[in-house]
Amino acid sequence: MFPQRLDVPEAYDIARAMMDGFNRHYRLFRTESARAKHRFETADWHGQQRAQRERIEFYDLRVKECVTRLEKEFKAGEQPMEVWHQVKLHYIGLLVDHHQPELAETFFNSITTKILHRTHFHNDFIFVRPAISTEYIENDEPAARPTYRSYYPAHDSLLGTLARIVTNFQIQRPFEDFERDIGYVHAAMRQRIDPMRLRANFQLQVLASLFFRNKGAYVVGKIINGFNEVPFALPILHGEAGRLVIDAALFGEDDLQMLFSFARAYFMVDMEIPAAYVHFLRSLMPRKPRGEIYNAIGLAKQGKTLFYRDFLFHLKHSSDRFRIAPGIKGMVMLVFDLPSFPYVFKVIKDYYPPQKDTTRAQIAAKYLLVKQHDRVGRMADTLEYSEVAFPRERFEDELIAEIAQFAPSQLEISDRDGDGNVEVIIKHLYIERRMIPLNIYLQEAFDTGLHEPRARAQMEKSVIDYGNAIKDLVAANIFPGDMLWKNFGVTRNGKVVFYDYDEIEYITDCNFRRVPAPRHEEDEFSGEVWYPVGPRDVFPETFGPFLLGNDAVREVFLRHHADLLDAAFWQSHKERIQAGHVYDVFPYERERRFPPSRVPLSPTPSKEMNHA
Question: What letter would DSSP give residue 390?
């Protein structure tokens, strides 16, 4: 219970020091995000990738700094709980007019759980629920930039309004042909609004900051007309001559969902009031959880906080039980799920079969690599938690037995809180969006029968996109290692995504080789490898027997992706990456791109890699 009086002077000082720690964190986070504009203008692609990777570490560094200060100045870990209750009340007072209160609450949780050694998240002391509303927060200073700008064009002034929207961002690099590109955008937008009568409230609302990721900058907004709202985004890229081009016009919730996918790197965006940005983005993508939107704009710790709140809410309003996840069991990860909840929970096993020469630390390092790397829409993001408590009655006995057999060091079943409720406590786990395993997705098509047009289309589309996924990973300097179908999943939009990371390597660390010609007949028919193989040697031509046992799958794969079985393909991309080339990655299909001139071009299938 909270105290009736605030009578401990140190309590306010501790709260103030914690708030200073958070303010320093967000100031540095925002500064680094704002610098993305200059890196885009100067085409500093390696700097952009490095900044995206390093920014992820900012939060933990600031938490560590703040904990050190509190222990040094206040012996914070020795303070009784009565003092910490007063600290929380003072901290809430400091949040009242704060512009990032929800982030500051999460920072408070991070600090206190480290100092007070809280063992898991069932703790009423931390901000399990928000204390401060994030509704209608505004910066009222005269020079402050608004969250979004509203534009009110008429039919005959839409072209000029679109030009003003883009020029308002003041990008310090010339366009290749600005009038041409705005003309493309105008034509695409007119197709969206011409069938509608313009209503009194017709307007374009555009977020005031650009969204930067990899080699692109994105204008994000929505069209409002009467009761209709249409989200849109305009990707701005560097053209072949180094001048800027507006590459496409994206419209609708599905396009924005792809742009802000959980399988892509986090955006760099300068935000004074992140909750206002999330509120706006949620209006564009109402089906996307707020936690995933916070993740997408680089605020992953807040994403974790909201995920956990959503999870507790779901547990309270459901009654199904956690079970072993369907599909082929992994050799290094134990996977379970709650059927009614669209995520899977992954635990690193305590021991692995002989063919898996790895350790817990190495597996965790692979997952961290994916977190910090450009995921190019092909690697699922993960949420990492420690000491997570679940109600024991929600676990199937078979699942408990599975964890006890394969990951006993990660399992505790106890009433640790002493509140009379027995809990299953998992020491360390990863959480990912649930997808349909690709092997199961293909089997569904086979079971229906490939003579049925929809089943054949499902098979062909997924096999083609599987190959595209591997090529996108190559572009991101990632070799997936184990490329079996079971290690890939199919999203709601039918996109193939990789999710098994224990064998990934950088392309540049691999040695791609052709299988040497047999020396004699005994070699040719031997079941053993007769040639020396290094620890990172890869022989792409040997992929076929493991992947292409089904004749229909083999035909589709070879028609579209035979180059993946050729060492020359892999080696050529390795050499380009080593030479410093950064591939373009497009979070939209190739046919959505504007042609490079005013002459309309019919989109044609490309033999080159298309990172859509």
Answer: E
Torsion over CA of 229, 235, 236 and 239, rounded to 10 degrees? -140
Buried b (16+ CB within 10 A) or exposed e, 521-537: eeeeeeeeeeeeeeeee
DSSP β-bridge partners for residue 175: 244
Q: Half-sphere exposure of 471 toward its Cβ, with a 13 Å CA cutoff? A: 24
* Burial grade of 384 (CB within 10 A; 0-12, 13-18, 19 or more): middle
Which residue in 255, 270, 381, 472 is the catalytic one? 381
Phi, psi of 244 (to 5 degrees): -80, 150
Cβ neighbour number for residue 66 with a 10 Å cutoff: 25
Sign, CA dihedral 213-216-217-222, equals negative
At 547, the amino acid letter reads L
Buried b (16+ CB within 10 A) or exposed e, 50-62: ebbbebeebbeeb
119 falls in which pLDDT band (50, 70, 90)? very low
Q: How many CA atoms lie within 13 A of 215 on its CB side?
A: 22
By CB atoms closer than 10 A (0-12, 13-18, 19+), residue 133 is: exposed
Residues 6+ positions from 533 with CB-CB distance below 8 Å:
none
What is the per-residue pLDDT across 273-297, written as a single tens digit (0 to 9) for each?
999 999 999 999 999 999 999 999 9
**116: Cβ contacts below 8 Å, ≥ 6 apart:** 77, 84, 125
The 3-state DSSP class for residue 250 equals: strand
The token pair at 555 is: 């035909």
Question: What single-letter DSSP state applies at residue 80?
Answer: -
495 vs 262: CA distance, rounded Å:
12
- Which residue, among 252, 213, 208, has the nearest Cα to 233 in the 3D structure? 252
pLDDT in tens, 30-64: 999 999 999 999 999 999 999 999 999 999 999 99
The separation between the first and the last C-alpha atoms of the chain, rounded to the nearest angstrom, is 54
Q: Is 528 helix (H, G, I), strand (E, B) or coil?
A: coil
Element at 42 (helix H, strand E): none
Tokens of 319: 């009654």
Q: What residues pair up with 423 in beta bridges, in sequence order?
A: 391, 414
Question: Distance between CA 487 and CA 440 in Å, rounded?
Answer: 11
H helix intervals, 153-289: 158-167, 178-193, 252-259, 274-284
User: Is 381 among the residues known to form the active site?
Assistant: yes
Judge whether residue 168 has pLDDT over 90. yes
Residues 169-200 as b/e (b if ≥16 CB within 10 A, e otherwise) read: eebeeebbbbebbbbbbbebbeebbeeeeeee
Q: How many Cβ atoms are within 10 Å of 124's Cβ, its own excluded? A: 7
Q: Give the whole-angstrom CA distance, residue 424 versus residue 315.
A: 14
- Rounded CA-CA distance 292/310 in Å is 11
Closest listed residue to residue 118, CA positions, set 84, 83, 94 = 84
**221 in helix, strand or coil?**
strand
Residue with tokens 């949040």: 95
User: What are the residues whose beta carbons fall under 8 Å from the beta carbon of 289, sequence distance 6 or more?
Assistant: 306, 307, 310
